[in-house]
Design brief:
It is built from nine helices and ten strands. The chain is of the alpha/beta class. The strands form two sheets. Strands 1, 2, 3, 4, 5, 6, 7 and 10 form an eight-stranded mixed sheet that branches. Strands 8-9 form a two-stranded antiparallel sheet. The two termini are about 25 Å apart.
């Protein structure tokens, strides 16, 4: 699904990071989906499903009478996702290698299209939203969760290594063509795409202990490290030294620390109109 140079790579280490990240983001994503109106019996398109965690979450919300279709361009991620689906005995999820902007809805429009950390990798998120909405029935739901990769309040003064790492990550994503601050743009992009934004979007930062946060940011940085070096933003030794500093600063500290960037949740409805012949 990415139109950009995917800075995190496509490796088993990255797939494992996505699974661990999914555990952290699950409560936020579930709140968004419930607030947006995902309920039992609906048919949902999961955009950029990756290794399947959002699809599995949605499957619990739509129940056995509902259906989740996860689409992604990464064949290896989809293979892994389907193996996980089979191992868990999930029957109301299917995966397809496809671009959600042109995916075949199977003769019936979806009740909802959702995604997490996916629009930031698209060249034109507004047009992507417009095209994805074409796969949704009139009055249906479009809901996305996207990041704002800026330093959290106080990080620059209390945790300078974390602040420096966050800046490097943002620069790397920007250099790759991605939009690391897309969460700030979701509201107006949905408006420009012809959707009717819900009046109550929300944003959260998952928090955790120092050791958990240090581990999460270190893994993130290690997966992005090859691109930081390729783009000339830092030498490998500089990044490794920075991660050592991160460990020295965070581990002795007390309190809670961000586990991810700020996550913005925004949902909208496709304007109601004449019934489509493809709509159930």
């Amino acid at each position: 699904m990415d139109d950009t140079d995917y800075a995190l790579g496509r490796t088993q280490a990255e797939y494992q990071r996505l699974i661990e990240q999914a555990d952290i983001l699950r409560p936020i994503t579930e709140r968004m989906l419930l607030a947006a109106g995902i309920k039992p019996g609906v048919r949902v398109l999961d955009v950029g499903c990756g290794v399947g965690d959002v699809s599995f979450l949605v499957a619990t919300l739509v129940g056995p009478q509902g259906l989740v279709v996860g689409v992604d361009l990464d064949a290896e991620a989809l293979k892994f996702a389907d193996e996980r689906r089979a191992a868990q005995g999930i029957a109301n999820v299917e995966f397809r290698q496809s671009d959600a902007r042109s995916a075949d809805s199977g003769g019936r429009l979806f009740d909802a299209a959702i995604g997490r950390l996916v629009l930031l990798y698209m060249n034109d998120p507004t047009e992507a939203l417009r095209q994805i909405a074409e796969r949704v029935r009139p009055g249906g739901i479009v809901a996305f969760q996207e990041p704002v990769m800026r330093n959290v309040v106080g990080a620059a003064t209390r945790q300078p290594a974390l602040a420096r790492l966050n800046n490097l990550l943002g620069e790397t994503f920007e250099r790759s063509g991605a939009r690391p601050y897309l969460g700030e743009e979701l509201y107006w992009r949905m408006l420009d795409a012809g959707l009717e934004p819900h009046p109550k979007p929300f944003a959260e930062i998952p928090l955790g202990s120092a050791d958990l946060a240090c581990g999460r940011w270190s893994v993130f940085a290690q997966n992005v490290l090859p691109k930081m070096v390729e783009y000339g933003l830092a030498a490998e030794k500089d990044i490794l030294d920075l991660l050592e500093r991160l460990h020295r600063e965070m581990i002795p500290a007390r309190g809670l620390f961000p586990l991810t960037s700020l996550m913005v949740c925004q949902w909208a409805r496709k304007p109601a109109g004449p019934a489509s012949s493809a709509t159930a």
